[in-house]
Design goal:
It is built from 4 helices and 6 strands. The protein is α+β, with helices and mostly antiparallel strands. The protein is elongated, with a radius of gyration of 20 Å.
């Protein structure tokens, strides 16, 4: 049973943090932040097609895809890239209120992704560059499928307050 005196019942939103926030100087090169696995469905692909307005038949027409050498319709590359969103991991929870902006990203698409594939993504801190009262965090991003094949790799950069 909780203590009912007034001092112990003071509400503090920071008591509800998922993880303890850390500043730029507390992060370490080599730290890995993983997202939960997710299996892509036709519904996911259709929803992304609607949002992106990308109506190329390679993404939804099975016969068209086979005609051009694909085993099935190909999931949109940008949808696969979305699996590297920092918010899919705990990384932005660690950044907390020191996060300033997402500076840049790059990626290479290495293998096709199809409906039914399960994707596993991670962000690994590869560089921490202090710049006065701010710092730049660089992460390597990687997405694997259920066959342990690397389907996407790239890089993100974030700007944090120090």
């Amino acid at each position: 049973m909780e203590n009912s005196n007034a001092e112990s019942s003071v509400f503090n939103p920071e008591d509800f943090s998922i993880v303890k926030q850390r500043g730029f100087d507390e992060l370490k090169v080599g730290e890995v932040f993983r997202a939960s696995s997710r299996t892509l469905t036709d519904a996911h692909a259709s929803a992304f097609q609607t949002v992106s307005c990308d109506n190329h038949p390679i993404h939804y027409d099975k016969e068209y895809a086979k005609k051009y050498g694909h085993e099935a319709p190909v999931v949109h590359g940008l949808q696969v890239l979305a699996f590297t969103a920092p918010g899919a991991t705990l990384l932005p929870h660690y950044f907390g209120n020191v996060f300033v902006s997402f500076l840049e990203l790059s990626c290479s698409f290495l293998k096709e992704v199809h409906s039914g594939d399960t994707l596993y993504s991670s962000l690994t801190i590869t560089d921490l560059k202090p710049k006065g009262d701010q710092g730049i965090v660089t992460t390597k991003v990687a997405v694997y499928n259920q066959k342990s094949e690397l389907v996407l790799e790239g890089r993100h950069k974030y700007l944090l307050r120090r």
